[in-house]
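# nightly structure sweep
# worker-07 picked up a monomer target from the shared queue
# config: single-sequence mode, recycle default, output format = structure tokens
# input follows
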Amino acid sequence: MININIKATNTELTQPIRDYVNEKIGSLEKFILTNREERKGKDDEIQAWVEVGLTTKHHQSGGIYRAEAQIRLPHGSSGENPYVVSEKEGLYAAIDDIKDQMQRELIHLKTKKRSVIMRGARKIKGFLLGK
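# output follows
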């Protein structure tokens, strides 16, 4: 389970907004941990910080909303903590955008970790076969 800390700036943090952020960011857990062994005992290590808010109040077309998120991955991960920012005309659109961006970042980190492991395995195989 991801522990999500939500902060609102220049806007009120209502329960529907809180629920929406929890739903969207909580759905990213499947991109962080892949198997049951990784999940055991590491649930408390996954932290997410999300800030949503209104950037300015003087736009003629309405408010421009900003959403940003950072996830602290478990210690066994690549050591990088992905951070994304989005500015949209609607608050829910900004939240959707940070969810999509964070999903891409997590997939990238997972692929990067997997390629490093495979590269090491190829070197060991080449060493054992004398190549």
